[in-house]
């Protein structure tokens, strides 16, 4: 297996004059990009960074972030990207946990760096002007240097991503060059990418989906078109202007895209392949995307930062709710909830916990200095995902939620995803999230938080669920109309905030609403 530096050298040799990177007016061919990467690698040497060092980045999806990613691969440095919105205490935790040597940041993350108690101990490099740091990114990338040569092999650490930490402290997920490249190759194969694809680089480069898009494009002479911060109008403009050929987004971003006022007037005909991951997609959104884009390929990719691919469904609209079958580098099972052994398999149609084989070429090997997390998640050569699901009679996996999200009401197990998909089909429902709320009689009751786009009452939604065939014990006992559903920066639904009461009820109902 090639290391990623060698992989990029091969790409630059194969397609030297192909546009590799677009950021606003900036356009770099593979050869031009290789030259800038080489200068940055030489600058790493000048400031004393060496193979094995961790470098933290707090950057949006701009060309500097993508260039840093590749330069680290050549230099053998472990790029450790974190959310550019991170607060000072979150930054402190990551600096301490990773034992970072340097930090790259920009204007929107500068305040967190200033307030951080640990950032001052690192070498700091701003990518925007107006700071007092000794050396800036612009200075580091000036001039010329000999072509960089890869300094580490495929077994070296490439990147350390941090899990979202929605329920606990973030966990570092270190991944080797070979696992990263294997995941990128699988991404190309499973999404049927051809030479010269053009993707919208909007999923953050601190998230596995963003990294995968970046690496995958390099393998096929593709173009990575930067969108630093998601904005539906800007995304639509770039899709039309740059003739984007594929999209790989979380469902939330797709939702915002097709519901934006500018969507109808935008030419999106260049987009022939859709892919989504990061969360389940409701039946309503799946149907709307299929009708509006009419893609040649519509992929549901189910995976994680730890093991990139679990399952793939290359025709998502044909079987809503299905996550398909194991990816080309994977083997999955569904075991009973609270199973003590991987041999305790759930029956066909029985909901259980999804587990994935750690021997996968795409897999990580354990969390960074978190043995207690390893003992919970890594057992008998398998990764226990914490996700719930079942296998149907066709052998397709259906992901139903998180083990922690399962609603037990009156002794019955209820999956939020099934109810959300049902309600999403109502034309007045823009977004919906379902959680279990504590109840003295039932233990928990099913509660639906609904963002509506036109008048609809609780009674009408109840009747809709009833006529849809949703079982009585699964139907919501409480409806709450809200202005928005709380999500993480990458679009993951934060159910715990709804359970904790951290939401805003609807301030102004749609005209005529009850």
UniProtKB/TrEMBL annotation:
Gene Ontology BP terms: fatty acid metabolic process
- Asked if the Swiss-Prot or TrEMBL record annotates the protein with the keyword Ligase, the reply is yes
The Gene Ontology terms for molecular function here are:
medium-chain fatty acid-CoA ligase activity
Check the record and name the Pfam families matching this protein.
Answer: AMP-binding, AMP-binding_C
Instruction: Tell me the domain of life.
Output: Bacteria
Specify the AMP-dependent synthetase/ligase domain's residue ranges.
10-368
Please verify whether the record's keywords include Methyltransferase: no
Question: What keywords would UniProt list here?
Answer: Ligase
Give every AMP-binding enzyme C-terminal domain span. Answer: 418-492
Show the InterPro entries listed in the entry: AMP-bd_C, AMP-bd_C_sf, AMP-binding_CS, AMP-dep_synth/lig_dom, ANL_N_sf
What's this protein's family per the entry?
Answer: Belongs to the ATP-dependent AMP-binding enzyme family.
Name of this chain's protein: Long-chain fatty acid--CoA ligase
